[in-house]
Design brief:
five-stranded mixed sheet; seven-stranded mixed sheet; 19% strand; 12 strands
Length: 335
């Protein structure tokens, strides 16, 4: 007899949302009136339902709307509260649009995201130019509610929509020579004013990478949406990576190239300041940034008099799922 031992983050059978509740929730998320009682939403309160409904309706491509109707939704963990959409979409690092946290929301609307093509190349059996539809239509969208921890010691809780990166990788079929996956962000200075500003000391385009086993891990998500809507430009539309146990700069935005490579890619921040930003960038409260401690974090939203400070968790709280990836490694050296 096969006995399956569930992971710490897996839903149990009693937590599965009944079909009628799921359908009613979708109606709320579309912004329609609802008459169900609070008891009909196990672990999903009217507060969260209302917050989703209040998210601005954004024009989305037809394929996204079609996939949204059949998405797999996740219940909010009992010990977490969602970061308000306004904070998650207006407090961002996306240096292509400027160095200030509000620059992406101010300037990203000018970025054209349709049509969007992703180049797949390197050690892979199915290289080519792929549209977002090509990449996502064969798959079911999933909601993943993840903690996001920035290397600057602030954090959020965000409900993403996407597919496991592993699912796409399996379809693309990398060869045995591929040991890493390299990602590249759009570089379009005429639509990205930060690339033309003083902060453009960055060697564009922005590059990130994962070891193959990290890329194939079930938690690693390729996201096209958040808060039940299509991704806003400032959050990395139309396609971004989400790696929840790593610092946020690893979750590269507005991806235009995915390359399967033999050697560890040199990533943007690692190239600029290797003593501060390592390739792995795993959340680790025991390894401080050279200029500040990583032992604690500021959970947004907060204020001057109520900063919402909390202890940082190893691997951002996902240690049970991912610590085996780094067995035998010195995480103070291979940070």
């Amino acid at each position: 007899m096969l006995i399956k031992i569930p992971n710490a983050g897996d839903c149990r059978e009693h937590q599965v949302t009944p079909e009628e509740v799921y359908l009613e929730r979708r109606r709320i998320l579309k912004g329609l009136a609802a008459s169900a009682t609070l008891a009909a939403f196990p672990r999903f309160s009217w507060a969260e339902a209302g917050r989703y409904a209040e998210v601005p309706v954004a024009e989305a491509p037809a394929w996204f709307d079609d996939k949204l109707l059949h998405a797999r939704w996740q219940n909010l963990p009992d010990d977490e509260s969602l970061t308000p959409y306004r904070d998650a979409s207006h407090y961002n690092n996306f240096y292509e649009f400027g160095p200030d946290k509000g620059d992406p929301a101010r300037h990203a609307a000018r970025m054209v995201t349709e049509p969007w093509t992703v180049t797949v190349d390197g050690e892979v059996e199915h290289p080519g130019q792929y549209s977002i539809e090509d990449l996502f239509v064969p798959s079911q969208l999933e909601e993943r509610i993840y903690r996001l921890r920035c290397v600057e010691a602030w954090s959020m809780v965000i409900p993403w929509l996407g597919i496991p990166l592993a699912e796409l990788i399996q379809r693309l079929t990398p060869t045995s020579a591929a040991k890493y996956v390299r990602f590249e962000t759009l570089a379009r200075p005429e639509q990205m004013p930060g690339m033309r500003a003083g902060f453009s000391l960055i060697d564009w385009p922005y590059v990130e990478g994962l070891r193959m086993d990290e890329a194939m891990h079930p938690l690693t998500l390729l996201a096209v949406g958040m808060y039940g809507r299509v991704l806003p430009n400032q959050n990395g539309a139309p396609l971004r990576l989400v790696v929840p146990w790593k610092y946020g700069f690893k979750s590269i935005k507005s991806i235009v190239r995915i390359s399967f490579v033999r050697e560890q890619p040199q990533t943007t921040w690692q190239k600029m300041a290797p003593e501060e930003y390592g390739f792995y960038a795993n959340v680790n409260p025991q390894v401080s940034h050279p200029r500040w401690s990583q032992a604690r974090e500021r959970r947004l939203p907060g204020s001057l008099f109520s900063p919402n400070i909390r202890e940082t968790l190893l691997f951002n709280g996902y240690a049970d799922q991912v610590s085996h990836l780094y067995a035998g490694m010195d995480l103070s050296r291979e940070y």
